[in-house]
Amino acid sequence: MTDESKTPFETELPEFSKDKSPEILEKSDIIKVPHRFNIMLLLYTHTKIGFTILRKLLHLTAGNLEHHLSVLKDSGWIKERTIFSFRPLLVIEITETGRISFQTQAMKLKQLLDHIE
Question: For residue 40, what are the domain limits?
């Protein structure tokens, strides 16, 4: 089969992606899911956000958001804290591990995107 008869999906990858591609496509199961990436992006920029505000910003149901938060919490990227005022408020905070890990993954993604022409 010649290169002209191959579909775009059958052609070989460019050289940069074979040797220099960041590991983000292979190892980052945590932020491969767009909702988790968005949660981490919001927490990276704001440090802590209330559960209800986060749910409204991401347009998620409470159950769906709880699932994504539990994955992030199990990985050590976030922590939850309850603040008691006139009613209990669940606050989600980024951990130092989460900050460093997200920053590392964001830099790898940036490197990958820099190769796009």
Answer: 27-114
